[in-house]
Amino acid sequence: MGRFVNTGKRAFQVALNSEIYVDKTGLIEQINKVLDTSDSYICNSRQRRFGKSITANMLTAYYSKGCDSEAMFSGLAIGQAKDFKQHLNKYDVIHMDVQWFLSNAGDADDVVFYITKNILEELQMLYPEQIGDGNLTLPDALSRIKASTGQKFIVIIDEWDVLIRDESANKKVQEDYINFLRGMFKGTEPTKYIQLAYLTGILPIKREKTESALNNFDEYTMLDAQELAPYIGFTENEVKELCKKYNRDFEQVKRWYDGYLLEEEQVYNPKAVVSLMMKGKYKSYWSDTGSYKVIVPLINMDFDGLKTAIIEMLSGTSVKVETSSFENDTSSLTCKDDVLTYLIHLGYLGYEQEKEMAFIPNEEIRQELGKAVKFCIYSETRI
């Protein structure tokens, strides 16, 4: 069992040990349907604190050859599926947390090298004959292993977009990283060694001109979650059950933390709901994990009356948004619609897909956006 290859079930066990765990293993059954097909390239993006990392850990625990997790999953929803054991602990799983690699690489320019070096070292221990002295690219190593052993890989990348968000001004870092992902996943050769590629983060895959940089991926987003809508975040029925268990006022919970409309599902932020259930206090838990000040520069851009649009939404109205111009990065924001679309992905706005309207989803977010607007206005008066 390695740090990045076949890491096992320990990380997911931490989630199961928590007082509140909501079973999302139905996602595994959905993914099992597309393994080793052209649909097995998935990017599932959601706002922060929506359970993305727990989901990545869950997939690793289920598929990894590095552990025996039958007992862990047998009592959960996936344990009742007909194909439960067909894919259980059958694959070499590579699990990367790009935020961790960025924090430990020393410099953003070295992240791709650091990822490659660490994963090759572990693959070399598992497949010494195929890797040799390790002087290979990661895609080449996976290709050689598949050709020699028949073994295909599941690759799970958490915080896939952190370099796109945090290094938005560093074009070289972004280009190197996107080229690394292309080498891993695009073209004919990767179809031979990839059983599943699962990327998760806040942003969808970066677009170049009008096309995704990884156009073989199916994307599930805050704008269009499709059939994966119920599996990240808490659904309304799940929240109702928690309210019964912890004797909380469902209507109050709904007013404070509901409002993300994904397909037909009303989806709640799990972090906020769990905090409310445990602490019993209706307040904004958003500020516990991030500051509203990160969006102040976005509001201050004031493209096409952006600030006015946000103030209108604070009063309870919805605003039309054209989401197609947003290139899924933070360095190419050129109009009000780009900023509003970015705020939807960040979770500061809800989105009604059929009407193409943005709105403030709940009281928690209303308070955070209100603080941001007040800060902008206060800053203007001091100039």
Describe this structure in a few short sentences.
This protein is an alpha/beta fold and 383 residues long.
Describe this structure in words.
- A 5-stranded parallel sheet has the order 2-3-4-1-7. The protein has a 3-stranded antiparallel sheet with strand order 8-10-9.
- The protein is built from 18 helices and 13 strands.
- The longest helix is centred in the last third of the chain and has 20 residues, at 363-382.
- With 383 residues, it is an alpha/beta fold.
- It folds into 3 domains: 10-229, Rossmann fold, CATH 3.40.50; 233-283, no CATH class; 290-383, no CATH class.
- The protein has helices at residues 10-17, 26-32, 52-63, 70-74, 98-104, 111-126, 128-131, 138-149, 162-166, 171-185, 188-193, 236-246, 250-257, 270-279, 296-301, 306-314, 336-346, 363-382; strands at residues 41-45, 92-97, 153-158, 194-201, 207-208, 211-212, 218-220, 234-235, 260-262, 265-268, 319-320, 350-352, 357-359.
- The mean pLDDT is 92.
- The protein is globular.
- The N and C termini lie far apart (57 Å).
List keywords for this structure.
single chain; alpha/beta; Rossmann fold; 5-stranded parallel β-sheet; 13 strands; 45% helix
As a percent range, the share of helical residues equals: 40-55%
Number of domains: 3
Radius of gyration: 21 Å
Tally of contiguous helical segments: 18
Query: Which topology of the largest domain does CATH recognise?
Result: Rossmann fold
Q: Which architecture of the largest domain does the CATH hierarchy give at level 2?
A: 3-Layer(aba) Sandwich
CATH class category of the largest domain: Alpha Beta
Mean pLDDT: 92
